[in-house]
Amino acid sequence: MSGPREDIQALIDLMARLPGLGPRSARRAVLHLLSRRPQAMRPLGQALLDVAETARDCLVCGNIATEEVCAICRSEKRATGEICVVEDVADLWAMERSGVFRGRYHVLGGTLSALDDVRPEDLRIPRLEARIADEGTREVILALGATVDGQTTAHYIADRLQAHEGVQVTSLAQGVPVGGELDYLDDGTIGAALRARKAF
Fold first, then answer.
1. Contacts for 6 with CB less than 8 Å, ≥ 6 apart
2. Are 68 and 74 in contact (CB under 8 A)?
3. Which of the two ends of the chain, N or C, has the fewest CB atoms closer than 10 A to its terminal CB?
4. pLDDT tens-digit map of 86-133
5. Pick from 128, 125, 138: nearest CA to 79
């Protein structure tokens, strides 16, 4: 009994690299798509091509957008003087799903990590400091995961921001478990943590 053709196997191998999908789940997903080529596979392929062509990092905050500056950064209604600092875009989207925060965001692009050799200059920390000066920021909310790397990064940023007079640095409070990541929390938990934020 022969296995899948090389091109189909290549698709399975690519799918298996996605988070949450192993080889078995990837095979099932590909078989599902193949059995529904007009309804599922072709639209998915076109959507992937479209996004590959149009998606880019927002020049201001680092969010994924289809324009140089994302809709959140362009919105005057979001100019509240608050910047919420998150590790990655998934965390920004999680915060947006909660519907509680109405300010602007800053995506660091990771956290400091000695093991992975991620240094301050590898993250968007200098860009954050420039934004604070440019945007008249009054509060920076550190919404980083309650992991060792997340808290190390939060402390580093808080120390750096001490030089900015009139800027309050806060962090998410109750509801975020130790070792927890924002993208895995429900909207209510994120909302409660944001409302109960405390001085860092």
1. none
2. no
3. N
4. 999 999 999 999 888 999 999 999 999 888 888 888 999 999 999 998
5. 138
Mean pLDDT over all residues of the chain? 88
Q: Give the chain's length.
A: 200
Evaluate whether 90 touches 103 at the Cβ level (below 8 Å).
Answer: no
Q: Tell me which amino acid residue 78 is.
A: R
Q: Pull the structure tokens for residue 196.
A: 């109960």
* Residues sharing a CB contact under 8 Å with residue 115, sequence separation 6 or more, in sequence order: none
Q: Which residues contact 41 (CB under 8 A, 6 or more apart)?
A: 33, 34
Q: Which amino acid is at 192?
A: A
Q: Which DSSP string corresponds to 122-185?
A: GTTHHHHHHHHHHHT--EEEE---SSHHHHHHHHHHHHHHTTSTT-EEEE--TT--TT--GGGS
Instruction: Please tell me whether residue 12 adopts helix, strand or coil conformation.
Output: helix
- For residue 192 the two structure tokens come to 């409660």
Provide the strand spans (E) within 51-154.
Answer: 56-57, 64-65, 82-86, 104-107, 139-142
Question: Per the structure block, which two tokens stand in for 35?
Answer: 């059995």
What is the 8-class DSSP label of residue 137? -
Decide if 73 contacts 163 (C-beta within 8 A): no
| Strand spans (E) along the chain | 56-57, 64-65, 82-86, 104-107, 139-142, 168-171, 198-199
